């Protein structure tokens, strides 16, 4: 029996949701898992995967029109789960492309911007990134130093962005900057003079993902590059909330892959003349891990139904992100103990997932920040503001 079968979750999904999850899982099993250990070890993600993700239909899949599939939120979440069962880097690519770069254009862009970029991003012909985080301002994006000033009919941007997924692969970057009229968003083609993207190396996590530092040194863009609907910091934060929702599901994919791997290992690895899965301590681990995976799945599905009903609140996304990532990394670490020494190699996915989840625990809001968001919702008192 597989862990989620104990929760009878299949009966909670529609036929479309089943089919999308199964389709993405087949793609991950056939096209990604056989190669991911090498990509992780070599710290690379092939650019041509963008078109494969586009052909699969997962890029901006929860958006309507412009070549996007227009699925419900639960379908998108299940796709994220299956992608992250392969590697967090795959889900990160799709999240950044669809929930950050594409969502920012879809929600806040002009019709011309949507027509220019969204079909190409949906097909994977073009790659997008999202520049909000800065070297000195991660959890506090309101302190950003990147600024844009008007110069005639143009905007001129100066600043630095850090930890930008897809940054050195991207064809277009959504850049958030201060202006004399508050925070605004700009679509910056990455070939624009003064724009530099430098890949961050020597990572111990998310190695099958491209992360970059962006430098904007007098980058000049026309007035038409501004996202007309984006006014204030609430605009980029709404994009982050979309990406966080995908993580609520995605982290469970990594956890499920770890648990399925550990379960298979425990029933085939023999010590003291019996499979180690027959020992009480191992069974206690497997039972406890299954409980946390199942509870996280039910929480994610509930939040997905709320999102599809238009009733999901930001603090509820924080509940899902905090719980599911925290439990996923605990599952990965405990599964590693079941595999013993074999668990530290790339022959098994468990420690790779655990390493990746260290990044997932931090990005799109650290666990500490989501804790304080929940605390504020409970008490009405903002602990992280003066």
From TrEMBL:
Acyl-CoA dehydrogenase/oxidase C-terminal domain mapped to chain residues: 231-378
Please verify whether the record's keywords include Cell membrane: no
- Which cofactors does it use? FAD
Residues folding into a coiled coil are: none
Transit peptide as a keyword of this entry, yes or no, is yes
- Residue limits of the Acyl-CoA dehydrogenase/oxidase N-terminal domain? 14-125
Q: Which InterPro entries match?
A: Acyl-CoA_Oxase/DH_mid-dom (IPR006091), Acyl-CoA_Oxase/DH_mid-dom_sf (IPR046373), AcylCo_DH-like_C (IPR036250), AcylCo_DH/oxidase_C (IPR009075), AcylCoA_DH/ox_N (IPR013786), AcylCoA_DH/ox_N_sf (IPR037069), AcylCoA_DH/oxidase_NM_dom_sf (IPR009100), Glutaryl-CoA_DH_mitochondrial (IPR052033)
List each copy of the Acyl-CoA oxidase/dehydrogenase middle domain by range: 129-219
Biological process terms from the Gene Ontology for this record are: fatty acid beta-oxidation using acyl-CoA dehydrogenase; fatty-acyl-CoA biosynthetic process
**Keywords, comma-separated and alphabetical:** FAD, Flavoprotein, Oxidoreductase, Transit peptide
For this protein, the record's SUPFAM superfamilies field holds: Acyl-CoA dehydrogenase C-terminal domain-like, Acyl-CoA dehydrogenase NM domain-like
**An annotated Gene Ontology molecular function:** flavin adenine dinucleotide binding
Family membership noted in the UniProt record: Belongs to the acyl-CoA dehydrogenase family.
Name of this chain's protein: Glutaryl-CoA dehydrogenase
Q: Which organism is it from?
A: Cryptosporangium aurantiacum
């Amino acid at each position: 029996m597989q862990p989620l079968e104990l929760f009878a979750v299949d009966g909670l999904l529609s036929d479309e949701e089943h089919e999308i999850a199964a389709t993405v899982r087949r793609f991950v099993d056939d096209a990604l898992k056989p190669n991911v250990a090498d990509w992780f070890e070599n710290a690379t993600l092939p650019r041509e995967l963008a078109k494969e993700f586009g052909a699969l239909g997962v890029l901006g899949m929860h958006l309507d029109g412009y070549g996007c599939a227009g699925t419900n939120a639960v379908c998108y979440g299940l796709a994220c789960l299956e992608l992250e069962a392969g590697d967090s880097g795959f889900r990160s690519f799709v999240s950044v492309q669809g929930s950050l770069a594409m969502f920012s254009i879809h929600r806040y862009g002009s019709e011309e911007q949507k027509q220019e970029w969204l079909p190409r991003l949906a097909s994977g012909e073009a790659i997008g990134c999202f520049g909000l985080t800065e070297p000195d301002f991660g959890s506090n994006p309101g302190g950003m130093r990147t600024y844009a000033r008007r110069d005639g009919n143009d905007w001129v941007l100066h600043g630095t962005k850090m930890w930008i997924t897809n940054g050195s692969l991207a064809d277009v970057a959504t850049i958030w900057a201060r202006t004399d009229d508050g925070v605004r968003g700009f679509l910056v083609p990455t070939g624009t003079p003064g724009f530099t993207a430098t890949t961050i190396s020597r990572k111990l996590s998310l190695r099958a993902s491209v992360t970059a530092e962006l430098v904007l040194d007098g980058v000049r863009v026309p007035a038409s590059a501004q996202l007309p609907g984006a006014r204030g910091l609430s605009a980029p934060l709404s994009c982050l909330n979309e990406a966080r929702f995908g993580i609520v599901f995605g982290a469970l994919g990594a956890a499920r892959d770890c648990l399925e791997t550990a379960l298979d290992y425990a029933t085939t690895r023999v010590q003291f003349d019996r499979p180690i899965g027959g020992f009480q301590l191992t069974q206690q681990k497997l039972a406890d891990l299954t409980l946390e995976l199942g509870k996280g799945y039910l929480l994610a599905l509930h939040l997905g139904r709320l999102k599809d009903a238009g009733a999901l609140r930001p603090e509820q996304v924080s509940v899902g992100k905090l719980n599911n990532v925290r439990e996923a990394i605990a599952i990965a670490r405990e599964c590693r103990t079941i595999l013993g020494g074999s668990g530290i190699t790339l022959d098994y996915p468990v420690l790779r997932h655990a390493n990746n989840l260290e990044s997932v625990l931090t990005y799109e809001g650290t666990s500490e920040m989501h804790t304080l968001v929940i605390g504020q919702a409970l008490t009405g008192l903002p602990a992280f503001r003066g």
